[in-house]
Amino acid sequence: MPPPLSGWTIWITGFVGKAPALDEFMSFLASDFFIPVLICLIMLTLWLSQSDRFKREKIQRAVMNTSVAIGISTLGVHIVNAFWDPWPRPFLVDDPAIRESARHAAQTVFYYAHDPSFPSNATTIAFAAATGIFLGNRKVGIIVYVLAIGWAMARFYAGIHFFVDILAGVALGVSIALFICKVFMPRVEPFPSWAMNLFRFLYLA
Amino acid sequence: MALDYFVLVFLASMGVYQIVSIFAKLDGICLFKQQWLQYIFGLLALVGAFGWFFTSKERNVQHTVEGSQQLGLFLGAIVASWVVTNILASIIQAKVDTRAVDPGEEKYYKLGIESLKTNTLIGSIMNNIRKARKDKV
Question: Do A44 and B78 touch (CB under 8 A)?
Answer without folding.
Answer: yes
